[in-house]
Automatic annotation (TrEMBL):
Protein name: Succinate dehydrogenase hydrophobic membrane anchor subunit
Localization annotation: Membrane
The keyword Nucleotide-binding is assigned to this record: no
Primary location class: membrane
Membrane-spanning intervals of the chain: 26-50, 70-88, 109-129
Domain of life: Bacteria
Taxonomic lineage of the native organism: Bacteria, Bacillati, Actinomycetota, Actinomycetes, Micrococcales
Keyword Nucleotidyltransferase: no
Keywords of this entry: Heme, Iron, Membrane, Metal-binding, Transmembrane, Transmembrane helix
Entry's Gene Ontology cellular component terms: membrane
CDD domains the UniProt entry points to: SQR_TypeA_SdhD_like
Entry-linked InterPro entries: SQR/QFR_C/D (IPR034804), SuccDH_FuR_B_TM-su (IPR000701)
Amino acid sequence: MTTTIESPRTQTPAKKRTNWEKWGWIYMRASGVLLVVLVFGHLFSNLIATPGGVHAIDFGFVGGKLANPFWQWWDVLLLWLALIHGANGMRTIVNDYVSKPGVAKTVKVLLFLSAALLILLGTLVVFTLDPCPAGADPSLVASFCPVN
C-alpha cells in the first residue's frame, strides 16, 4: 500500500473572488483621465467659448444648455464619475486611517449613501430641469422660451 503525500506548497483551488481593491484602483485611474477631459471641456464651453465668459452664466444659460441632450449626458457623466471617484477616494482614506472596524464600516456606509443621494438628486435635476418656467421674467430664461 502506497500513500502519496501532497507537496506542502500545493494549494487546493480556492473559490474565485473579485478583487475589489484592484478594480477600485483601476477605476480611479480611468475615471481620473476621463474627468480631466470632461472638466476641461466643461470649463472651455462655459468660460471661453461663451461670449461674455463667466458673466454670461445665468439661469437662462444653464437652462438652455441643459435643454440639449448632449450637454445633459456630458454633465451627468461628469457628475457620476466625480462623485464615485470622490467617494472611492474617501473610502480609501477611511481604510488607511480608521482602525476600528465598526467606525470604518459606519463611515463607509455614510459615504455610500451620501454619494448615492447626490447622484440621484443631481441626475434628477439635469433631466427634469424646466428651462422655461411659467411666469418667469423673460430676461432671465433661455432665449428659445416663448414669452408669456
